[in-house]
Every structure is written in C-alpha cells, then in structure tokens.
Amino acid sequence: MIGIRRGACRAFPVRPATPRPGSQNRLPMSSHLPKKRPNHLAGLLACLVIGIPAAPQPVTAATPSVTVLFPPVVQAGRAASITVSGGDLGTLTGLVSAGGELQTSSVTKSVINVNVSRDTRAGLLDAWTLTSTGLSNPRALLVVTHPVTVVAEIPDSQATPISLPGTAASKLDRAADRDVFAFTGESGQLVHIACRSRSLDGTVAPILSVHGPAGQELAHSFVHQVEPKLALKLPADGRYLVTVVDRGFQQNASSLYTLTLETGPRLQATSPTAICGGGKLLVIGHELPFGTAHSQTGLSAMPVALDRFLSHRSWPDRRPVGVLDSGFRLRLSNCSGTAWVTHSHEPVVTETSEQNDTAATAQLLEPPVRICGAFERSADVDWYAVDVQKGETLEIVGWGERLGQSMRLEAIVHDRTGKALATIAPPAAPKKIGFDFPYTTYDPHASWKAPADGRFRIVVRDIFGGSIFGPDRVYQLVISPPRKRFQAFSVVGDGKTHSGLSIAAGGKATLQVLVIRMGGSESPVEVTAEDLPEGVTAATVTVAAGKPVATLTLEANAQAKPSRSPIRLVAKTGTDNSGRPVLPVVHLPGPAPVRRVTDALMLSVTPASPPPPKKAPADKKTP
Question: Of 224, 348, 208, which is closest to residue 275 (Cα–Cα)?
C-alpha cells in the first residue's frame, strides 16, 4: 500500500463559480453545492485513489443450483451412477428423495452412486442433491422396472441397441442432432414407444419416427405432442429403427431425454375423465385384459368401479399453470400406462353421443355440472344450454391446457337470438407478489352474470381444432354457481432462489406462501407447518384477507441435529377445518428456467455455521 503523509488528505473550500458575460440566465455546474461549504467528496475520492481500503461489505453465501442430473432415469431395485451439473455446489454428499427411494452409496467428485429401492413405483420422482453449501433444487428422475441403457454420443449413422422392454437415456449434443435406436421385434407384437424430456426438466421437443426391417417408415409422431407416444403392431420379424430429433433442431445443456419401449396391455384413457365421489369409469387402452371393443377409439375398454373418493394427490402437468383441481393417476395391475382422473366437486356428465354441433341441438345442462367432452372431428364445436334467471352468476371454467393438452380452449356465451354476449377470459394472475409465479393458462376461467331470464347457450371449441382432433382431445367444462375456495403454494426464501430449503442449527429460514382465491373468496388463510424435525419450529402465519402473500419463518435451536426430511404446510380458512396442502413450487435453473410443483417440501438441517475468525489487533504506527 502506498504510504500517506498525515494531513495529506484534506478537504479544501470550493470557490463559487463566476458567470461569464451573457451567461447570467444559465445555472453554473456547481450551483447545486452550497456556497462556502467544504467539498468532502473530493477529499474522499482522493483518498480512495491513493489506496485507503474501503469498509468491508457483507458477502452473501452462494446457494447451490443443479441444472442437470444424468442419466435422468433409474431402475427400481438396482444401483445407478448419476452425474450432477450445476453451480455453487461445493462438495457433493448425496442424493435424496422425499420417500426415501434413493440411498447414496458413494460420491466421486460430480458422480453420485445410489441404490434404488426395489419397492419404488414406476413413474416420476424428484431428487435433491446434498452439498456442502446446502440443499439444492430438485430435478426429476424417471423410475422404470426394466433395463436402462445410458447412451454415449455416437455417429448419426449408427444405431444404439435397446432392449424390449427397455429405456435409453441420451442427450442431443449439437444442433440438428439425430439419434437412432434399434430393437428386435416379432410379427404381431404390440410395441409402445414413449419419449420424455419436459417432464424430466429437459428442453427437447421430440419427434419420433419408426422404420421397419425393409426400411419403410411405419409411424411418425404428431407435432403437437409435447412428449410423443406411439403404439405399433409390428408387421414382421426383424430389426426396427427409432429416430429421435428435436422439433426445432435446437440444442443446449438441458437437451436430455429418455426413450422407453414396452409391450403388452397399456392403459390409455378413461371415460369420463372426472369422477365425483365414487362410481364407475370406463378404462380404455390397448389389449386390456377382459376388455371389449370400444367403437369410438378402436381400442379395448372395460368398466372399473371406484367405491371411494381417492385422496391421493397428483398433478396432470407439474407446471402450476393456473389453478388445477386435484385428482389421481389411475393404474391397472399388469398393465403399463396411466390415466389422469380429476376429482370433481360437481356432478359429472359426459358429452352426449347425439349431435351437439349447433345451437339448435345444444345439450341441456343443469348447474352445477362438470361436462367431459372431446373434439373428435376436424373443426369440431360443442354447444351446451343452461336455464338461468336474471342476475344469477355462473362460474364457467374450462380445462384443456391444464389437463396437459396442447389446446387453446375457447368458451362463448350466446343469448336465445344467437348474439354473442361474453367470451370467457382466462384467469387473472395475482399482482404485486414480489416474485415471478407461472400463473398462466389459456383455459377460460371467469364468472358471468345473466342479463335476463331465459335459456343461454355456451359454445366450446379448440382454436387448434382444425388440424388437431381425435378421441384423445378431451376437455372439461364446469358450469356452476361460484364456489368460494383457494389454492396455496410455497416458494423458498424470497421466491427468486434456485436452492432448496436449508436451515443451520441456531439459524432461520423463510418461505413465501402465495394464496390464489377463487369463486369470490376473500377470507384470511391460516398456514401451519407440520412434520417438523426435532429442534425446528415455525409460528403459524396468516395471509390477510384480500392479500396474496405472507412470510413463514422456520427457526432451528442450537441443539437441532443434522437431518433431511419432507415437511408439510397446511392452509385453511375459518370455515375449513380440514385444511388444504400447500403445494411447493421450485425455481429450476438452466438454459430454459422453469417453475413447477415438486413432490414435497424438503428441509435440510445443517450444523451451526462456524463463527467468523477474530481479527488480529492492528499494529500501532508511530507518527
């Protein structure tokens, strides 16, 4: 450091500027400074230039963020090696899931070796990375019950063998990359092919094509399918090729995907797609055991009785687009595939088999009702009619995109003369919440007040319906008096961090709780934390009436032991004693950052942070 003579840094008075002739009407550059006042800023800047050290600034600890887990698939009952990529990860110590399905056996730099429980159900689960800097954000893993092949990059002209059944995990390594896979099949064998990326937090928009032993193309996936699926009955014995490309020929660090081949019976859908309490559903699929021919789809179908209201919470699309009704994924034993079924608070009615394509043939409904329909033909439109009284308010809610469909649903109310009265708008996002929240959907969701007594008609269509149609293009439409309700979500910290929820012994951590009210609800919402580990507490917090957000604070005492476990937040109003689960939303980093609902709210309790080192006393210098 440069030596400074005592008294060298002094402030000097600044003389007021003397205006030049003709410049009396112009303000001098120094006119904002008081006259005859020392210019302390000039002296301070001089000291900084010479080298006097500035006061230390507080440093914010880095938070871990994971951008990729590869491979994003594991086999139940087997060991797997997963490479972790991200930022500010420090030293990796393990990989955990909410249900304990993953057990870390060893860690070598960025590779975590895990054992997957044999009892793990096939499907998606979230995995959190444990690091020396705290708990990371989760990333999705696919669990399968058949062999997994991890693919190394090979020339486009070569095909990677894949077993049947089997799953391959791969990446697109460059723009316009093209991956080819080969499997051996038998004549008459039914093969199901599925490609995942977005549900695995990847960015690939896959397009699939299948070529037979003679080189001819046998099948090609639809462009509108986010994660394409194909069902193919093989025409001959021999070697078949499956090609995967990105729809936009794009590539980035998150261009990962899985390709799964399965055989045998497969569940495809249900009719209706919602259930109120118990009742019967018609399950539809390929070669279902004890199934009979289903005329509308050409598949097989059989009735299934559900004698209770299933309480298992699931999500048709892990993005929190708008607000979703809860539901469950129906599974059948000895059968691959699942079907999403919505829990309905309203009686469920299926679209009539008769023509309802015009206002004159509109299907008459009695609110409250949830109609389950489908756009089976090109440019298909469905008309429904309701009898209402003047001043009566109906909440009209459509479900298409929010059921995982690539659909732009539109609902328009008409009077008896055919005049269009209102186009039902999408729901409005909450304002001024302090962080980004993906409350976006094109699905209609609004209230409408009848201007007179009489019969009104509602027409529903898919704007994409001219080119995309079929029995699988299902939707739901709810017509009901407004029902006061809410949905609550939580985000870690200030809602902008990528990391998971970590708290040090003797420290604090915060969550933002966001409440979205519907049906005219304005009530305060009380949020309580449950299943907290020993030594961690959280006071109940209230989201005030008419307000969207409140902060919940977790505190760990000095004796809290290190642990990792899921905790639960429950939200309720004064009239709802049972409460509703608060859905945790995570902010995933990467080339295409996304926010989505995760399996659980994981909490990591870490040892107390060491105290900062004491500063040595400065040596006294003599003048």
Answer: 348
Coil, strand or helix at 585: strand
Compute the CA torsion angle 501, 505, 508, 511 (nearest 10 deg).
20
Separation of alpha carbons 283 and 280, rounded Å: 9
**Euclidean distance between CA atoms 622 and 115, whole angstroms:** 66
CB 380 within 8 A of CB 461: yes
pTM of the model: 0.85
DSSP string of 538-551, one letter each residue: E--EEE-TT--EEE
**Chain segment 376-393, per-residue pLDDT in tens:** 899 999 999 999 999 999
Q: Per-residue DSSP letters for 141-179?
A: EEEESS-EEEPPP--TTS-EE--SSEEEEEE--STT-EE
Q: b vs e for 168-200, b when ≥16 Cβ sit within 10 Å of the residue's Cβ?
A: bbbbbeeeebebbbebebeeeebbbbbbbbbbb
Tens of pLDDT, residues 216-231: 999 999 988 999 999 9
Q: Report the C-alpha gap between 219 and 54 in whole angstroms.
A: 68
Q: What is the pLDDT of residues 341-360, one digit of tens each?
A: 988 999 999 998 678 999 99
Sign of CA dihedral 501, 602, 315, 424: negative
Count Cβ atoms below 10 Å from residue 313 Cβ, excluding itself. 12
